[in-house]
Amino acid sequence: MNELLKVDHLTVDFSTDQGTVHAVRDVSFCVYPQEVLGIVGESGSGKSQTMYSVMGLLADNGKITAEDILFDGKKIHESAFKNHTEYEKTMQHIRGNDMAMIFQDPMTFLNPVLKIGTQLIEPLQNHTKMSKKECEQKAIDLMRQVGIPSPEKRMNQYPYEFSGGMRQRIIIAMALACNPKLIIADEPTTALDVTIQAQVLELIQDMKEKLGSSVIMITHDLGVVASLCNRIAIMYGGKIVEIGTDKEIFYEPKHPYTQGLLNCINNPEDDDKDLQPIPGSPPDLLNPPKGCPFVDRCEKAMRICKEQMPSATAFSKTHECACWLNELKKREGKK
To answer: Which parts of the sequence belong to the ABC transporter domain (predicted)?
Structure first.
């Protein structure tokens, strides 16, 4: 099966007054048609910046280098274009049309002085040939699809008149307006209570099935990806340390960080299980470790872990892990 999105050896750096932040370090992954890929990691792991770079939404102080970024078979890395103007023109067409993002904080994303209807209509006017009246009707239909009552009335209201859950539904409606091939959901449930979280995740799943879209779910919560994702990539310190199917990650985790994340999950069926938080703090990406990014927090760390980053060890066609424990076991098995 051909990939819808393929990212090869992506690196993202940010210039700051303190120095260069190495936010994403040599990351490679792909997303297949109608697949849901979860990208999991704690704050500062690089998961959001990875996808912002793919969409061309990095801050001005960000710099991208990559061997290649392909979307639907076409190169979308800036170096593949004659100049920045041509690149930006192409990405403006792709964003909101073929590739859309559901942002973490709808109140930050929505314009507080524009009516919701105006903001919903904008992507339709930019990316379709529909008349204004057709765009208005489409916006009403979208609001109805995402479960917003009285959409005709709500079209004339402002963001502050909506609850947090309803604002997130508006963001989802805007993302789905042009039937995108890829939906990127950046921590879409972080600011919501548990009941609303479940409703939003169910809505994303329903819309994905109706449109036949692929989804990238960015989150720090393994519980979110458990019910939604086909494959899961674990990010730490700007790197993907493990990637596999949902079953491989949850039942056969190989990286100590993945194992640590799973030990932090509360299991209501096991009252005797104690939660085991991961000691220590994430690495400083101004001065990232030379070797494995998890070395200072890993109970199984060896000398080589500090000195050299391990290559990915394959356990199946879908399961890879970058850890010296697995690399050395593989070498010993060949002897």
So the answer is: 5-262
Which has the minimum average pLDDT: 3-12, 111-120, 199-208, 287-296? 199-208
HSE-CB at 13 with a 13 A cutoff on CA atoms is 12
pLDDT of 334 over the 60 cut: no
Identify whether the C-beta of residue 216 lies closer than 8 Å to the C-beta of residue 39.
Answer: yes
Strand pairing category for 19-31 and 5-16: antiparallel
Strands (DSSP E) along the chain, which ranges? Answer: 5-16, 19-31, 36-40, 62-65, 68-71, 74-75, 99-102, 182-186, 214-219, 231-236, 239-245, 313-314, 320-321
Query: What does the alpha-carbon distance between residue 162 and residue 77 come to, in Å, rounded to a whole number?
Result: 37
Q: What are phi and psi of 146, to 5 degrees?
A: -90, 10
Distances (CA, A) of 256 to 115, 236, 237, 242: 48, 11, 14, 10
| DSSP H helical ranges for 95-184 | 106-109, 116-127, 132-145, 151-154, 164-176
| 16-66 residue pLDDT tens | 999 999 999 999 999 999 999 999 999 899 999 999 999 999 999 999 999
Buried b (16+ CB within 10 A) or exposed e, 68-101: ebbbbeeebbbeebeeeeebeebbeebbbbbbbb
Q: What is the rounded CA–CA span in Å between residue 134 and residue 9?
A: 43
| Domain layout of the chain by residue ranges | 5-98+178-334
pLDDT of residue 335 exceeding 70: no
Residues 124/135, Cβ–Cβ less than 8 Å: yes
d(CA 166, CA 143): 10
CATH of segment(s) 5-98+178-334: 3.40.50.300
